[in-house]
């Protein structure tokens, strides 16, 4: 087969996997990460992810209140110096999922590595939570938004006459709002298991951006089963949550045997963008992204990820390596030689009047031509 033929035929098949209810009396097969897998909805592990809190946030959380999974930090010294020099009437508070990232942020004057599969979500302050819930007759569901970040940054006014206006920043977005300094925050840590099993360790809390106090709202563990594996080691996990399906997209920890190249690939693969059922965008820079699919009878929901598959050169030629080549230069050379091809992963849940439970379908297909050169 010629190189051109290999490029045109490799990975061109549409890959599908369905999670459906088995026929009456049939043996229930276990969930499996393979093309054509047909595990039943009933065999997925069961768990629950709490919605946004319905309670009004407290007016203040004492600085002495702290809980595991939420590590707070003040401005790095250089940033604080710049703020004093500019005489700006604002300050920043930061929130991390672990001590390692917080220390890396402080030592590097504002950069942090995002090495762990731990994500944070900002649910908003009192005004934003009220806006999400609408009126008293609105009974939900009210899911946490799909913006997952390895760090949250909160900017607030420091003057005694401050109106409580606060700017909330993550690695992906920034917005200004009023309604108090206390926010609902959500933490998820992905924990890999054996034989296709995993879990999410989940914690919800109130975070006071001004005092940097954290008060626990609740904790839970969501068991997961891997149901599909795609390009670059991308994994799809699922769990039952009542009649809903919790779906988790997880990127690999080690996408290459070459450590320098693995770091380049890892930073790209961790940045995921998903179109959610409500047509809003979900995003993550922290290794995984979770979303909820609900399918009452006659209704379906779908989420779509668009990304790129990084494939080795067809002929294995990655260029000539200089004798004094550094790790960074080698990683850049190897990455530039890789083939890239955009793909689309779609996860949907549907239910007809004849279905005893939701039917979840996973489809993967190419959406463009391959190219090289990063």
Question: Can you offer a commentary on this structure?
Answer:
It is a single chain. With 374 residues, this protein is mainly beta. It has one domain (3-372). It contains six helices and 20 strands. A hairpin with a 5-residue loop joins strand 11 (214-229) and strand 12 (235-241). Helix 5 packs across helix 6 (327-337). The longest helix is centred in the last third of the chain and has 11 residues, at 259-269. The two termini are 26 Å apart. Residues 1-38 and 162-177 have low confidence and may be disordered.
Topology:
Blueprint: H1 3-9, E1 15-19, E2 71-73, H2 77-86, E3 90-96, H3 99-107, E4 118-124, H4 126-133, E5 147-148, E6 152-157, E7 166-170, E8 174-177, E9 182-192, E10 197-208, E11 214-229, E12 235-241, E13 244-250, H5 259-269, E14 272-275, E15 281-284, E16 288-294, E17 300-311, H6 327-337, E18 339-350, E19 359-366, E20 371-372
Parallel strand pairs: 5-15
Antiparallel strand pairs: 1-19, 2-3, 3-6, 4-9, 6-7, 7-8, 9-10, 10-11, 11-12, 12-13, 13-16, 14-15, 14-17, 17-18, 18-19, 18-20
Helix pairs in contact: 5-6
